[in-house]
């Protein structure tokens, strides 16, 4: 992994997925299914995977289906063009504490939750 920082502020840390930095410009032949990327772009492979992921998070192989955070385009990029940055795990859902269930007063109505 290189010591270079992304060329834009990192604003997507809450996206559950694996972040990769593009290490070389990628200009695909298949522009319908693949995305263009510039050196130092950050791409995120969202979790859970919606494609057959090969290799490991740190050493992916083959094609990655990801989102380019600079352009917001989604599509495939070849794994040889990226290096691992970090994995953002899904944050647990915020649980809302509801008031206790009211006792039945006999008329079958339940007061609304405020």
Number of helices: 0
**Main sheet attributes: strand count, strand direction, barrel closure:** 5 strands, antiparallel
CATH class value of one domain:
Mainly Beta
The fold-level CATH name of one domain is: SH3 type barrels
- Overall geometry: elongated
Classified in CATH, the superfamily of one domain is: SH3 Domains
Q: What distance separates the N and C termini?
A: 51 Å
Estimated helix fraction: under 10%
CATH-level-2 architecture of one domain = Roll
Give a verbal description of the structure.
The chain has 114 residues and is mainly β. The protein has a domain at 17-88: Roll (SH3 type barrels), CATH 2.30.30.40. It is built from no helices and seven strands. It has strands at 17-22, 42-46, 54-55, 60-61, 63-68, 74-78, 82-88. The protein is elongated, with a radius of gyration of 21 Å.
Question: Key features?
Answer:
five-stranded antiparallel β-sheet, 0% helix, two-stranded antiparallel ribbon, SH3 domain, mainly beta, elongated, SH3 domain-containing protein, 114 residues, SH3 type barrels, SH3_domain, 7 strands
């Amino acid at each position: 992994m290189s010591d270079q920082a992304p060329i834009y502020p990192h604003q997507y840390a809450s996206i559950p997925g694996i972040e990769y930095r593009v290490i070389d410009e990628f200009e695909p032949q298949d522009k319908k299914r693949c995305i263009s990327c510039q050196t130092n772009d950050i791409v995120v492979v969202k979790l859970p995977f919606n494609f057959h992921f090969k290799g490991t998070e740190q050493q992916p192989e083959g094609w990655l289906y990801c989102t380019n955070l600079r352009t917001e385009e989604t599509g495939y990029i070849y794994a040889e063009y990226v290096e691992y940055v970090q994995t953002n795990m899904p944050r647990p859902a915020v649980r809302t504490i509801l008031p206790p269930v009211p006792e039945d007063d006999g008329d079958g109505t339940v007061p609304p939750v405020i």
